[in-house]
Amino acid sequence: MDYIKIRFTRDFERTGSNLERTINGMFRSLNPVFTLSERLWKPQMDIYETDAEIIVLAEIAGVNKEELEIEISSKAVKISGERAVAQRVEGAVYRLAEIQYGRFERMLFLPAVIDPETAAASYSNGMLQIRLSKLLMNKIQKSDQ
């Protein structure tokens, strides 16, 4: 059975300072072609919940499972990875180029506290599904004491 890497964490680090993001934004506006491969893209996702769990569904077609990284805390999920750049046709004039390549990252703050250790992930047909069990209120109260 193949597994998807899941890393558990207590908190997430902030990625980049405001100054760094401002400088990067200025260079993107000056030369968007150069930064196409450098910028992070955000895959489309759904998040929904039942009484017992939260389910995250991410559309990441073309990403190898080995390139996925999932970090989970009790309050958030961070999904990151990389989609390899498709082979460009030499001499072709692209009229439309909407597919995003390179590094991606998405941080989702969860609508309820979850038990990170019961997380399960599966990846099939370009869809990543993460199932997270909600913590029951009595477990939360016991852990606060």
Structure description:
With 145 residues, the protein is of the alpha+beta class. The protein is 17% helix and 32% strand. The protein has a domain at 42-85 and 97-137: Immunoglobulin-like (Sandwich).
Average pLDDT taken over every residue: 81
Give the SSE order as H and E letters. EHHEEEEEEEH
Briefly, what CATH class of the domain at 42-85 and 97-137? Mainly Beta
Named CATH architecture of the domain at 42-85 and 97-137: Sandwich
Structural class, from helix and strand content?
alpha+beta
Count all strands and give the number.
Answer: 8
Alpha-carbon distance between the two ends: 39 Å
**What would you call the shape?**
elongated
- Count of discrete alpha- or pi-helical segments spanning 4 or more residues: 3
Largest sheet, if any? 4 strands, mixed
Residue share in β-strands = 25-35%
> How is the CATH topology of the domain at 42-85 and 97-137 named?
Immunoglobulin-like
Strand order of the largest sheet: 1-4-5-6
Rg, please?
A: 18 Å
Helical content class:
10-25%
The low-confidence runs, each spanning 5 or more residues with pLDDT under 50, are 31-37
Question: Secondary-structure blueprint of this entry?
Answer:
Elements: E1 6-8, H1 18-30, H2 32-35, E2 45-49, E3 53-59, E4 69-72, E5 76-83, E6 102-109, E7 120-124, E8 127-133, H3 137-144
Parallel strand pairs: 1-4
Antiparallel strand pairs: 2-3, 3-8, 4-5, 5-6, 7-8
